[in-house]
Amino acid sequence: MTPPAELVTIQGPQVEWPHGDFPTAAHETMKDEQLRRNVRHATGVVSAKRAKVVAEMPDWQHLRDAGSSIRQHALDHLDHYLLQFEAACTAAGGRVHWADDAAEANRIAVEIVQRHASKEVIKIKSMTTEEIELNRALEAAGIHPTETDLAELIIQMGRDKPSHIIAPALHKNRRQVREMFSREMNLPDLGDTPEDLTDAARRYLREKFLGVEVAVSGANFLIAETGGVCIVESEGNGRMCLTLPDVLISIAGIEKVIPRFRDLEVLFQTLPRSATAERMNPYNSIWTGVHPGDGPHEFHVILLDNGRSAILHDAESRQTLKCIRCAACQNACPVYQQTGGHAYASVYSGPIGAILTPQLHQDGDGRLAEGDSLPYASSLCGACYEVCPVKINIPEVLIHLRARVVERDQATLAGKLGPWNLGMQAAAAAFKSGDRLEFAQRLGRLGQTPFVAGSGFIEHLPLMLGGWTQSRDLAPLPRQSFREWWREREKSKSASNERRA
């Protein structure tokens, strides 16, 4: 029998993100074979199912074009649509707050909860609240947050970090979840079937839904035309949080706004197919203001900037904000499949995290600071762009951000004298002249001799070059370059013609 909810507590510190840059963190996470198996299995299953439901749509590419246009238009006129949303939401009885950064958003949310003397809130799955670490701010104020999404509950009880946008506990298998629930819910005889685990979570959460007076949500879309907040989910916990508590606080990034209610016709077709490989989300909730006798008596929306305006100012990378958080790019990415999400040290992992995270953490001068190694966490294979339902050209943005990192580093003496910059400068000088290139090739043939193995390939390189051969072999420079072969061929042809003459 499940113990009373008040007896179930989440104790101990949360797991912190890995320290250091992505290559270092990835090297560590790749040692976890169980994690890699869990991630590969889960992403493979979802990708296969997604391919089937997408293939059913003869107009899929047109839907992608339409979704991209809707999101791009909203971003191009974001100031107009945000003010329109605020006016419509306020007219419907909602209260709109503007937050410049995470600290301000957390302060507003905590003050609202404290005004109602509540010591507990229930939460719908929200990447935005993960981004600003709302749970930590609530706990610091003596307010206990309870995650109601099954995967988020698993993450919270395990004092873990999310590793996937749609499936935060994707790196856990059911045996690991069973051990966690058994320990945290005091259920020693709990089975490990999906039915056992969901039943335990359901009984635990039921008392929360019925007894907690304040709920916190994110938002999939903000509808400027009506002032409505749209939330899509698969479990029904969101519907419970939206209707049962007396107070609802929705925290959303400013980029979530869409112009019209009818724009959902497109996005409701592309989002579920790309995210969970479903033709339709089981629960699509749209909440507009307050209504006597129906749902919360008080409704707040906190519009969060937190670095998004800076992204808008960069014409090349502005398309990053078109993201509708479907995670299709994560499921398709070969790098993510090997490293999992924790290596990105951010709530946003995978290809979208590689371009979004560093841009959200720019310094005051607009230079990439935290997460500047993430744009290199990609093979540039283009799989992420092919599956994106709003056609974000992630490889294009990755290259742009890499250029910004290089420009930033070249502005300092240490960067100019760094091995990568010196190597690129030497390569640039060699490629400017055919004679220099041939001289460099001759030096390369001499220098590679000690490293060519019996297989005929270079299997190990020293120092910083060892990163290449750590996981692949390198073909040595040939004895003769194409230019040398061509010159020798032309010389031979000329000699042959002279003999015939």
Cα distance spanning the termini:
103 Å
- Structural category is alpha/beta
Main sheet overview: 6 strands, parallel
Overall form: elongated
Helical fraction = 40-55%
Rg calc: 27 Å
Residue ranges: pLDDT <50 for 5 or more in a row? Answer: 1-14
Mean pLDDT: 90
Question: Number of DSSP strands?
Answer: 10
Strand content: 5-15%
Number of helices: 23
Strand arrangement, major sheet:
1-10-7-4-2-3
Task: Draw up the topology in text.
Layout: H1 22-29, H2 33-55, H3 60-76, H4 78-91, E1 95-99, H5 102-115, E2 120-123, H6 127-131, H7 134-140, E3 144-147, H8 150-157, H9 174-184, H10 194-211, E4 214-217, E5 221-223, E6 228-233, H11 237-243, E7 247-253, E8 257-258, H12 264-275, E9 283-287, E10 298-304, H13 308-312, H14 328-332, H15 334-339, H16 350-360, H17 383-387, H18 394-410, H19 413-416, H20 419-431, H21 434-448, H22 466-469, H23 482-500
Parallel strand pairs: 1-10, 2-3, 2-4, 4-7, 5-8, 7-10
Antiparallel strand pairs: 5-6, 6-9
Could you walk me through the main structural features you see in this protein, from its secondary elements to its overall organization?
There is one protein chain. With about 500 residues, the protein is α/β, with parallel strands linked by helices. It contains 23 helices and ten strands. The protein has helices at about 20-30, 35-55, 60-75, 80-90, 100-115, 125-130, 135-140, 150-155, 175-185, 195-210, 235-245, 265-275, 310, 330, 335-340, 350-360, 385, 395-410, 415, 420-430, 435-450, 465-470, 480-500, and strands spanning about 95-100, 120-125, 145, 215, 220-225, 230-235, 245-255, 255-260, 285, 300-305. Strands 1-10-7-4-2-3 form a six-stranded parallel sheet, sandwiched between helices. A hairpin with a 4-residue loop joins β5 and β6. The radius of gyration is 27 Å and the shape is elongated. The chain starts with about 20 loop residues before the first helix and ends with a helix.
